[in-house]
């Protein structure tokens, strides 16, 4: 199914703001099928493991602290061209620069608290999905 699955996170800022349901509805309305979904609360160590690729970047400490600051929703999505479609629905990383109608424009507050995460390639989608979901959890 390469190309048809991607991974997303509804970040702690969105969960805290109570917009999880609205974001999920937008995902469904955009034609995605949800293949796996769960509410989790990452430890700092888990967040550091997930974002290890960014370990040397200046934003790494703040990112991992934020991602472990509260519950988030991890989700596996299916759609033809899933990675690109999900990134289009999310919008630009900076909500101020995101297009109207995107999740980050509607729900993101800042560059660091931008509502959602999404895989940037089919390869990373597979890695990120397997970080949070076992094969039996993906239906």
In words, what does this structure look like?
The protein is an alpha+beta fold. It has one domain: Alpha-Beta Plaits. Helix content is 40%, strand content 17%. It contains 7 helices and 4 strands; from the N terminus they run βααβααβααβα. The chain has a 4-stranded antiparallel beta sheet. α3 packs across α4. The longest helix has 11 residues. The protein is globular. The mean pLDDT is 96.
The CATH homologous superfamily: Nucleoside diphosphate kinase-like domain
Q: What is the domain total for the residues?
A: 1
- The assigned structural class equals alpha+beta
Low-confidence stretches: none
CATH fold group: Alpha-Beta Plaits
- Secondary structure: helix percent: 40-55%
> Mind telling me the C-alpha Rg?
14 Å
How is the biggest beta sheet arranged? 4 strands, antiparallel
Instruction: Please provide the count of β strands.
Output: 4
CATH architecture: 2-Layer Sandwich
Distance between the termini: 13 Å
Class, according to the CATH hierarchy?
Alpha Beta
Mean pLDDT across every amino acid position: 96
